[in-house]
Amino acid sequence: MWTWQHVLTTVFGSIIFPLIIGLAWGKLVEDNKSFGGVLAGFFIVGTVWLLNHGIGLMYEPQMGGNLPGPWSDMALAAFWGLFVADLLEGKKIELEPILSGILGGVLGGLLLFAMV
Amino acid sequence: MNFRRILMGMCTGAFAGFGVFTIWPSSLARWNWLGGWLAAGIIITTGWLVNHYAGGLPNKEGGAWVDMALSIWLSALLGGTVVLDPVNGLIRGAYGIFHGANLGGAFLTIILQLIGATIAGYFLYAARRSDA
Q1: What is the residue range of B42's domain?
Q2: What would the pLDDT profile of A22-67 be if each residue is shown by its tens digit?
Q3: Do B87 and B122 fall into the same domain?
Q4: What are the sequence ranges of the domains in chain A?
Q5: Angle, nearest 10°, between helix axes A75-88 and B104-131?
Q6: What are phi and psi of B73, to 5 degrees?
Q7: Which segments within chain A are labelled E, that is strand?
Q8: ∠B132-B69-B45 over CA atoms, to 5°?
Q9: Residue A82: its chain B contacts at CB < 8 A?
């Protein structure tokens, strides 16, 4: 059951992930080029994952029971936060990357479905 | 519309999506929470290198940024997760929409994630504007 505590932690987790990516990822890459991405993988995504899903800031009650799912990953917050920031800045919606992203998700889902 | 670029983006996006939801649960099952932290460096780094550093996902100058995270989120939502368990071998971790899992169960989580992310997007926009 959802309580206000779950709402608070879920919303906070969703704020912090895109915020840290938007603030720090570009700087890491600026300073270290491709190696900055390696650092970002561990110290941004890894560390935020520990809070959001490892510890569980994001509440996912559908994961109980014997048919757990569907999983809504913190990736949604990353995509949406960065997308919204650019839209507010007046950048255009480009169909090519959006279509690629969605088709990539469908193919990725199909592969996961096909595995076991 | 360049369909070859879209098809390539589909493959690199699917690589990130499939990679995250096989490597992450497996690494977590094997090494506990440290495995979860390591998994990020193992798969997110390579996913980012190919999708964003090398430009597999066709983002354009002046266009709103589409992160590979979109593919990653959709992959698990649709196809669930797969775990390489140290004891039981390859097993299913979670079910997705393709298995008939009910989207309603994740509905509130999704809405709250979108709300939080919108707030973060506003913060980032405001910070960039005050820096400029």
Answers
A1: 3-101
A2: 999 999 999 999 999 999 999 999 999 999 999 999 999 999 888 8
A3: no
A4: 4-115
A5: 40
A6: -60, -45
A7: none
A8: 90
A9: 65, 67, 121, 124
Same domain flag for B91 and B107: no
Q: Are residues B58 and B78 in the same domain?
A: yes
The CA-to-CA distance between both ends of chain A, in Å, stands at 30
B34 close to A (CB below 8 A): no
End-to-end C-alpha distance for chain B, whole angstroms: 33
In the block, tokens 């592969």 appear at: A111
Give tens-digit pLDDT for B62-114: 999 999 999 999 999 999 999 999 999 999 999 999 999 999 999 999 999 99
Residue B110 in contact with partner chain A when CB distance is under 8 A: yes
pLDDT (tens digit, 9 = 90+) per residue, B10-68? 999 999 999 999 999 999 999 999 999 999 999 999 999 999 999 999 999 899 999 99
Quick one: B79 and B32 in the same domain? yes
| CB-CB contact of A71 with B76 (8 Å) | yes
- DSSP letter at A91 equals P
Cross-chain Cβ contact B98/A76 below 8 Å: no
Same domain, B92 and B107: no
- Please check whether residues B61 and B29 belong to one and the same domain: yes
Tens of pLDDT, residue by residue over A38-48, are 999 999 999 99
Token pair 């099952």 in the structure block, residue:
B29
B13 touches chain A (CB under 8 A): yes
Q: Which pair of structure tokens corresponds to residue B93?
A: 């971790």
- Prediction ipTM score: 0.94
Q: How far is A20 from chain B, CA to nearest CA, in Å? A: 9
